[in-house]
Amino acid sequence: MVTVEKLVIFKLIKGLKMKNFLFLVVFLIGGLGFAQEKNDAELKAERNAVNLVYSGNELLDGEDVIAAEMEYRKAISEQSTNVAGTYNLGNTYYNSGHFEEALFRHQQAAKKAKTKTEKHMAFHNIGNILMKSEKCKEAAEAFKNALRNDPTDDESRYNYVIAKKCAEEQEKENEKDKKDDQENKDENKDKDDQEEKQDQEDKKDQNEDKGDQDKQDGEDQKDDEGKPKEDKSDEGKGDDQKKDKKKPKPQPGQLSPQQVKNLLEAMNNQEQKVQEKINAEKQKGVKIKTEKDW
Fold first, then answer.
1. Mutual orientation of helices 83-95 and 40-61 as an angle, nearest 10°?
2. Would the pTM of this model clear 0.70, i.e. be above it?
């Protein structure tokens, strides 16, 4: 016998709702027909898992979330294929704000699910978790899978429409961002090209100015007939140097021509004085001794 208990419906952002907790209980009475298909160990594991899920639901009603989580974990450990324990654990994680763990558990539940109802509920809640993370495109795909397993569910259909519209808006925004990025790149490239062109023009102008200046300097060095000009600033200096070259330079230990001239003039003056003195003495009749005694 299989029963499904409906508990509180948990709301999600943007008006989305999580599906009810799934609670499967298998009652084994005496010798049930399907018991023949399973061995005693499998039947015991299945019975224990169902009891643990039931216990977890009771604890959750009492708002003992941590204890309920532990019971669901035990149920999964007891029977790895238990869908109810995995599904309920995923919802517990979601309501605790652990969205990555919640998504992982609901994905497990979708894989373990054997009925369309189980798959529908798992995919529906996967879509809600993805919408919480603003992964609208992936959420829309999850709600589509939920509708494949239960096309009559209006809640899944409503959520699918919201997710699809959200995905379209995100796609438009992404396209706009890409366009803006490309425009910024093109603008920066144009700016760089203009700066490079301006640099080249500046260098060209500098080279032309330097060429004109060199040409002007060359013209300044020529006279009216186009011949190189002499450096007039050194003309006087050149004449002095020529005069110096004409004058004989005295050798070491010799008198210069000017010194010889001065010396001759001095000797002539001295002889003239001596001669004048002699003449004066003669006139007086005094005998003048002109030579030294030996």
1. 30
2. no
Compute φ and ψ for 137, nearest 5 degrees.
-65, -45
Q: Which domain holds residue 124?
A: 13-133
Could you tell me if residue 18 is inside a domain?
Answer: yes
How many domains does the structure of the chain reveal? 1
Rounded distance between C-alpha atoms, residue 181 and residue 33, angstroms = 67
Residues 69-79: tens digit of each pLDDT: 899 999 988 88
| 110 — pLDDT class (breaks 50, 70, 90) | very high
What would the pLDDT profile of 47-62 be if each residue is shown by its tens digit?
A: 888 889 988 888 888 8
Establish if 155 belongs to a structural domain.
no
* 288: in domain: no
